[in-house]
Amino acid sequence: MTVYILGAVIAYLIGSINTAFFISKILKKDIRSGGSGNLGASNATLTLGWKWGIFVALVDILKGALVVFVSRQFFGDYEYLPYIAASMAILGHIFPFYLKFKGGKGFATLCGCILGYRWWLFLIAAVIIAIITLATDYIVLATLTMIISFPIYIGITNHNFIYPLILAVGSLVIFIKHIPNYKRILKKEEIGIRSSFTKKHRI
Q1: Which terminus of the chain has a lower count of CB atoms within 10 Å, N or C?
Q2: For 34, phi and psi rounded to 5 degrees?
Q3: pTM score
Q4: Gap between the Cα atoms of 140 and 195, Å rounded
Q5: Maximum mean pLDDT: which of 59-63, 188-192, 194-198
């Protein structure tokens, strides 16, 4: 039990390293004042440009990959740890304690968890994300696909329903955080990905 608790806390702390926030500090631009007001890769792209957005996304992906990979490779006797670590890293990203629990929306960190689990699965997910995003112009629809399909895949391939239930904690919070995006899509008010790559929604 001690290993699970320590693993959960460490995964949360690693997940809570908010790349967008620290980049904002370095550039002296608070991205919470522009775009969606969110401290994540998408809003970094909207407010700072696509180069910074990609950088933020890569670091956020690495956070998820790190906690899952280490859990699987070095703590194999603790079968639930990789899934606990995944959900806790996502929660850390979304609810960083030093930012009044207001961080990003967790999608990039979820993608990192997929990478830490299976690199080839991450490549497949990346292709699916790209196809859905390019076809619809909304990455949030790719997000919805991943938060549903990844836990289901884990449950089916491992023949264990507890694993996806643990993952569903992080996935559910990601879904809730994106509800405003879904509503804006229905109202045709959501900013498309093509727009975010062609202009900045300045702060």
Answers
A1: N
A2: -140, 175
A3: 0.90
A4: 14
A5: 59-63
